[in-house]
Amino acid sequence: MSRLPVSRFNSRKALLFMGVVAGIYALLLALLMYAEQDSPNRKLISLQDGLWFLMETLTTVGYGDVLPVTYWGRMVGLVFLFLNLGVYGLIIGQIANFMSTVQENKKLGLSGTSFKNHVVIIGWNDFGHSVISHLVGAGKQVAVVTKDRNNIDMIREYYNEDKVYTLYSDYNNFELMEKSNIVNASIVFINLNDDTEKLVYIINIKKHFPSLNYVVTLDNGNLKSTFQAAGVMYTISKNEISSKLLASYIYEPDVALFSEELIAYAHEAHEYDMKQVLVKGNNPFAGMYYEKSFFDLKKSCNVVLIGLVKNVDGQRKLLKNPEGSLKIEVGDYMIMMMDGKGAELLRKQFHIEEGI
User: Rounded mean pLDDT of 47-60?
Assistant: First the structure.
């Protein structure tokens, strides 16, 4: 099991070091004043003079207005000089250590993130990398939690910090996981190695974050109901999706090509994509009939409205290409098919953004 990073800068040690140094200086100052007290030509008369000499020496200013005149006084002054060199080195080392620790902690995500309504991905691999690429392309912020230190540098090479935040943590350290602002995430993707590990982890993490929405991908599609019973909102079988797409390529290849394009983010203006947008109070389609919205969207943006999601008794209900006189209401989700150009027109004309 990976151990969590420990800050190399220790504030207790730093305070102890400062206390010891202060004690040594106080002792030397007392010896200096004692050595100088009987000299008729002494310039270090009061404690204030001694402190002034100490500050001149410590800061290497050396005004020369106060200085020891006796043999033993000068010997103590010489100790002051050599001690200062060591103190400077230690102070510079502590500052460098502190700055290095701050930078390292930030790199490892220990400073936390202010992301909200983002996606938290627990576990990093090639599949997670592919998912993140689509999420970032769609303008979604992502927080990745990994227990492999080597993944941190790899993720930072691929993505900017304002888009992807990384946290180095053991997956069962739920207190540290709050650094990813997981409580304000829109969804949590459990991206671990096998189905059994995912199921056990879901049970554990829901004890700490019960109200979050979770999604997993399964190697064994027969376990869908088990994961749903454990509290997972969305379960996706990799084999089921790939087998459906493969079969489609065999007997209707053009449909398969279109389907593959639709489920991915449209990077180019000519590529098509399916998006869903929340109908808010300022949405021009709120209160409008579905049929009229269909024609208005097609005419103004070349966007095809293909369905609605309504909240019925606390449950999300997907209405695919609904018939009849159905009104679009605030709180509904509009499901639309569009190319990149249509998506841009939709944003400019109606000021609506995709995603839940």
Answer: 82
Rounded to a whole number of angstroms, the CA Rg of the chain reads 33
| 3-class secondary structure, 304 | strand
pLDDT at 7 over 60: no
> Where does the pLDDT of residue 10 fall: very low under 50, low under 70, confident under 90, or very high at 90 and above?
low
- Kind and range of the H or E run holding 337: strand 333-339
Other beta carbons less than 10 A from residue 200's beta carbon:
12
Q: Return the closest-CA partner of residue 218 out of 236, 205, 202.
A: 236
CA–CA gap between residue 215 and residue 248 (Å, rounded): 25
Tell me what pLDDT residue 318 has: 92
Burial class (CB in 10 A: 0-12, 13-18, 19+), 43: middle
- What is the predicted pLDDT for the residue at 57? 80
Name the DSSP class of 3. Answer: P
State the pLDDT at residue 353. Answer: 62
Cα gap 211→231, rounded to integer Å:
10
With b for 16 or more beta-carbon neighbours within 10 A and e for fewer, the 305-332 pattern comes to bebbbbeeeeeeeeeeeeeeeeebeeeb
Helix (H) or strand (E) holding 87: helix 71-107
* DSSP state for residue 61 in the 8-state scheme: -
- The pLDDT value recorded for residue 5 is 47
> Judging by DSSP bridges, how do beta strands 333-339 and 272-278 pair with one another?
antiparallel
- DSSP code for 42: -
Residues constituting the chain: 356
pTM of the entire predicted model: 0.65
pLDDT score of 2: 43
- How far does Cα 348 stand from its chain's mean position? 30
Q: How far apart (Å, rounded) are the C-alpha atoms in residues 5 and 16?
A: 23
**Lookup: tokens for 100:** 């290095």
Assess contact for 123 and 192: CB atoms under 8 A: yes
* pLDDT score of 4 more than 50: no
> At 176, is the secondary structure helix, strand, or coil?
helix
* E strand spans, 129-197: 142-146, 164-168, 187-190
Give the tokens for residue 152: 């941190």
pLDDT above 50: residue 324 = yes
